[in-house]
Amino acid sequence: MTPATVRFRCPECGCERLASASVVGRRVRCADCFNFVDVTPGDLVQRTDDIAAKGVSPAVEPRNESNRMTEPNHNPADEPEQEPLGDLEPLRPIAEGDELVPLASDEDAGFAGQNPSADKKAVDRWRDEPNDNDLLDEEPDGDEQEEVQFGGKGDRESVEMDMTPMVDVTFLLLIFFMVTANFTMMKTKRQPPPTSEEPSLNSVEEVEDDQVVIFIDEFDSFTVLYGAVDAEAPSVQELYIQLRSAIDTPVPPQKLLIKAHAECSHERVITAMDAGTEVGLVDVQVQLTEQDGL
Amino acid sequence: MDSSIEDLRRMRRNRGNEEPKMDITPMIDVTFLLLIFFIVASRPDPNRIINAPQAKFGESIVESNACIILLVDTGNPDLPDIHLGPSKAANKLTGAEEEMEQAIIDYVSQTLDGKRIKHVLIKAEKDVRYKHVHFVYAAAGDGLRAWLGDNESTGIMLHTAVEEKKN
User: What is the distance between the alpha carbons of residues A84 and A82, in angstroms, rounded to a whole number?
Assistant: First the structure.
């Protein structure tokens, strides 16, 4: 297998570079100016063994020619200096074990084609030096692999604690307490202490003229009494309607007397108190009665 | 040129380590604050939950300054549970009606005596018959009178607990 390299010229800094044939058609970074260069298939391909051959210098390509290829094992002494383009070897991908030709500019003596010993020295110098061509490849070089194996980066990462499970549990707890939280405010209805020890069972006839009476029977139904109004209100909505119609007088009343049957529910009494407060009856009194009707 | 190559090599080495990582520390801090808030704000004691009637209008009092009497519906409309305390685990009244009345009077007068109690709060569930609420209300008034004597100008009031209605 004969290795193949591509020679290209960086349009930014003007220097010529060699790269693996596998990068043809891709963008590589110039080692001098670090600009990206598109390597076209028409660039020159040079054989490594031409350079490595003893006493044989690689074919010299004039600077103004860009598409040149050398034949394998050819002798530059027997060949004309310029070969026809039709005899060039086609591009092929670089294979494992192939030897890459070093990147060199025209100023390097090894590519001048004038001094074979200088060419050999240049190749040897390139082999001893850090391989700049590796920078053009996408695969990591041997130095990087060495760092991965023996470097301290992995040790540093293992020290860091993974907080993901803690965050997960915290969010689960947060959602649980948010869902189960009860923000209902407990409020109170104020009532003055009863002035008499006796239950107010016989105060029906003490109803004053300027107070609205809400009677709650044992079936939790309301009856609103005020003046000429005597209307039943089975629901809370109707209670509000009847209360508003009852107090719709030139001089609205201020007092509310709730006569609650002994068997009515506590909720209904609170509802009547709340309705009276909403319509503007500020003075609310509650009496317990065991009469079935007014 | 060597320095440039070294820079490029360093760039290539660090390329894999430059993944953007978001700092989640403030998020964890806020999450823990919210968690603590909801833990404190929640009511873990089921004995304190009372199915009180709802009302739009009411006033807020400090329960720690109140003498609380609990009326819990047991499903039997004629026999609610009466607890002398803020929890269902508190002292439950049993016996005849006169004994229960006297126990309420003693509880109210003794609680008001020597403590910074400013309210008498009756927490009754909404399905309790009003005659039982009135019974406790009258007994608590008797206890308040017993503690006051003839002086009724201390401003201590009876309160009935309601749940705030949200419209």
Answer: 7
CATH topology of domain A204-289: Nucleotidyltransferase; domain 5 (3.30.420)
The DSSP bridge partners found for residue A212 are A256
* C-beta atoms of B8 and A135 within 8 A: yes
Instruction: Give the C-alpha separation, A24 to A38, whole Å.
Output: 8
Which residues on A lie below 8 Å from B64 (Cβ)?
Answer: none
Quick one: tokens of B49?
């939950």
Lowest mean pLDDT among A136-140, A244-248, A272-276: A136-140
Q: Is A85 on the interface with B (CB under 8 A)?
A: no
Whether residues B101 and B117 share a domain: the answer is yes
Work out whether strand A44-47 and strand A222-226 pair parallel, antiparallel, or are unpaired.
unpaired
Q: Tens of pLDDT along B89-143?
A: 888 888 888 899 999 999 988 888 766 787 889 999 989 999 999 999 989 988 8
| A161 lies within 8 A of chain B by CB | no
* Cβ–Cβ gap A183/B41 under 8 Å: yes
Q: Which of residues 119-158 of B touch A (CB under 8 A)?
A: 119, 121, 124-134, 137-138, 140-142, 144-145, 152, 156-158
Domain hosting residue B85, numbered range: 47-164
User: For residues B144 and B113, is the Cβ–Cβ distance under 8 A?
Assistant: no
